[in-house]
Amino acid sequence: MFDPVAAVQQFIRYPSVSTDSRQRAGMEGARDYIAGLLEKIGCCVSVLETDRHPVVLAVREGRPEWPHLVIYGHYDVQPADPLEAWRSPPFEPEVRDGRLYGRGAADNKGPMMVHIAGVARALERNPSLPLRITFVIEGEEEIGSPSFADILQRHSDRLRGDFVLLSDTSSPSPEQLAITTGLRGMVCLDIAVEGPRSDLHSGVHGGAVLNPVQALAALCASLHDADGWVDVPGFYDRVVGARAWEREEIAKLGSDDSDYLELLGAPAFHTVDGLRPGAATRLMPTLEFNGIGGGYQGEGSKTIIPSRAFAKVSCRLVPEQDPVEIEEQLIRTLHERCSPKVRLSVHPGHRAAPYQVVPSGREGASSDINPCLARAFDAADRSIAEVFGKPPLYLREGGSIPIIAEVRRLLDMDSLMIGMFTPDNNVHAPDENLHLEMFERGITVSARIVESAGMAP
Amino acid sequence: MFDPVAAVQQFIRYPSVSTDSRQRAGMEGARDYIAGLLEKIGCCVSVLETDRHPVVLAVREGRPEWPHLVIYGHYDVQPADPLEAWRSPPFEPEVRDGRLYGRGAADNKGPMMVHIAGVARALERNPSLPLRITFVIEGEEEIGSPSFADILQRHSDRLRGDFVLLSDTSSPSPEQLAITTGLRGMVCLDIAVEGPRSDLHSGVHGGAVLNPVQALAALCASLHDADGWVDVPGFYDRVVGARAWEREEIAKLGSDDSDYLELLGAPAFHTVDGLRPGAATRLMPTLEFNGIGGGYQGEGSKTIIPSRAFAKVSCRLVPEQDPVEIEEQLIRTLHERCSPKVRLSVHPGHRAAPYQVVPSGREGASSDINPCLARAFDAADRSIAEVFGKPPLYLREGGSIPIIAEVRRLLDMDSLMIGMFTPDNNVHAPDENLHLEMFERGITVSARIVESAGMAP
Fold first, then answer.
1. B207 in contact with A at a CB cutoff of 8 Å?
2. Are B195 and B310 within 8 A, CB to CB?
3. CATH architecture classification, A185-239+285-352
């Protein structure tokens, strides 16, 4: 059995920033490293080419009647800038106070290693475990997994299994693990409003034409009502409200949100329907402005009527909102509401469906849940309670992992997601880190899940 | 007599962008050039230091009982960006189709040169013209003339005269000159809205806090009503309506606004109260957004909740609106309307009072108009009719020249303003240009005005 902490450290040393074309060597290094490690634990590795960064596919073969576990991870990481904000260099892993620091420690090199080590440990204990295992490790997650749906379709025979196991979501704390029961989907739009052909002198021409920033502000402001609800007709029509058990699970997060407010550094929370922030981010859809721009942005003043202004909008969607439908509603609403005295253009960006998986015995559980996944849920629940001292919480997550809904749509597989980073692990930020005790305990849990998947029903 | 067109060309070659600290050499070059030219026509030049860009003072001395004409201009120009939108480089003047192209050609290097050449011509014809002349050429007009009031006060003995002659306003066309009877004032504000301490992941945290761009859009959208009126309590209280003769003059602009719309390149006009655009820009106050920004502005998407967003606002004011009062109303309104879930900060910028000067014989004319100015108004009216073939229109202007109201407040002098650029001269925009025939004719008119000012009453 390899040393999993040393393996994560070595993995971090490859700067595998998928969005940065100068980091080609880092991408290749990380890919070769993880492929080598998967070979070492007994897998047969192949590399699937894509337009940008290949997918590593590692297979433990077995008899066709054996269950088939698919494990997902990604070897690419976010850019590390601003570099000066890191206490130790992002690609030189360092252990301090029980945490391993480095870019990718929490997203996703550490959590992915939990399951590689979990498989290794399970197979060490039972080399003849009757389970087929396929690792699918992509290199384009941080750039939106553009090739993944194509890979799923082209290799559907090799990738179709009983369920997917992954850790790319969060848990409330290193002691309180979460099993992630839902992910938000996404719709992205670029909006641009154009008025006069070029910027105009606001004295000479001010009062003759509609200012594009004014038109855009009115348009953007129209998208929420005074209570914070998204004001787009039909937006909430398909939203499935929280079930009683979901409210109970969220209530277990505790009633004190002051630490969270302190972490955000905002003057106040702002949620719809009187929800607590931890409920709002998990259960409700949003419409956010990711950016806005137009006219003069420098120091001092430049008294112009800007020629154009733009905004970047993204919605997070919850089950059963349909991204295609929401995108249509939004585009239609924008065109209906925009003043005809400016020209509006709307460019759709990427879309992702929301996802939900409800374990058996809970309201909303699907009746035909895969029996192998059902065993894995049970094993996860029991082993987390035992190893971490507390049963897991079953929580939906505010973030999106677009490929999870794609896997269900294309291959009809659900996913078991165990949160292996925490809010203080600085995912996508400087000083990203991994709790090492949580990591070690996670491996124990992962091995139990793997063993359960390989048990006869 | 120097070649006035060549002089404007040389003047343009100095990139005198007052707001840009990297253009120090351009500012110095333009200042030295204009000082040298004024010396060449017989003036005694001194340079008055200010905190940023000195004022050039050039004096033709004379007997104390002679009338005293003050001529105003500014040697600084607007920034030239976006550079790629220029057909020829902004600081390399080029003549095409009877126009001179370059930054500052119309604002204010060309029109200022009209009066330098006008004085030169008048003095060439009558070297003993009994007229004291003082040129005051500042370098901070495009940044709001922050030092000018101080200069007026410190040098009031040298700057107090019978009236000010200047050309820094517009005429309807190269054939139809305007005498400018009013200027709009100005109030500028920078607004910033801050939410979370740093940009947040819009998945993990979306739904918990108010998005600063959303708060800013709502705040900005609240500042106009659906009919386009500025929705700030008290804003219109002191607005003086148009007089009958003003409506008649504006009517002479013609009833076809299609050329103007074509020039602006906007889908439609947008005016309050059913006014025609030429009336709205001259007679009504405005509130414009000069710029807006916040969050991610690059290509593609970055799904964040921005930490902050900002907008740059400026109001144009008409007689008798008070800039201090309007600024207070605006700041109070912003604070009243901004959500308490973000932090609002408002930074006032420069302020300018509106101005109006009404020649004798018209409703609203002041009874105690300076006799030398009255002669100059007559000379301007007659010589424009003769040289341009049409009598001038008497029009208020949409733009602002803050120092004109300051001159009246501090030195009790009115101004004779002759429009020497036209709407298609792209003032403050790429491809700024000057009509050369209008320029030449303007010099003839200017010389007549100078001569009239020097005549015994």
1. yes
2. no
3. 2-Layer Sandwich (3.30)
**Cβ-Cβ contacts under 8 Å, A295 against chain B:** 289-292, 312
Q: Residue-wise over A234-258: b if at least 16 C-beta within 10 A, else e?
A: ebeebbeebbebbeebbeebeeebe
Q: For position B109, what pLDDT does the model report?
A: 98
Residue A214 neighbours by CB under 8 Å, 6+ apart: B220, B221, B224, B288, B289
Would you kindly state where each structural domain of chain A is located, as residue ranges?
Answer: 4-183+354-453, 185-239+285-352
A4-183+354-453 placed in CATH 3.40.630.10: yes
Q: Is the pLDDT of residue B456 over 80?
A: no
- The ipTM of this complex is 0.91
Taking the Cβ of residue B281 and every Cβ of chain A, the question of whether any pair is shorter than 8 Å is answered with yes
* pLDDT tens readout for residues B11-37: 999 999 999 999 999 999 999 999 999
Edge-first strand order for the sheet with B99-101 is: B94-96, B99-101, B433-435
Please indicate whether, in this complex, the C-beta atoms of A295 and B296 are within 8 angstroms of each other.
no
Q: What sign for the dihedral angle of Cα A425, A430, A436, A440?
A: positive
A348 touches chain B (CB under 8 A): no
Answer for the pair A299, B226: CB distance below 8 angstroms, yes or no: no
Q: What share of chain B is helix, strand, coil (3-state, %, to 5)?
A: 35, 25, 40
Q: What is the pTM of this model?
A: 0.89
Q: What number of other Cβ atoms are within 10 A of residue B82's Cβ?
A: 11
HSE value, Cβ hemisphere, 13 Å, CA-based, for A327: 17
| Residue B143 touches chain A, beta carbons under 8 Å | yes
User: A183 to chain B, minimum CA–CA distance in Å?
Assistant: 9
CB B170 within 8 A of CB B422: yes
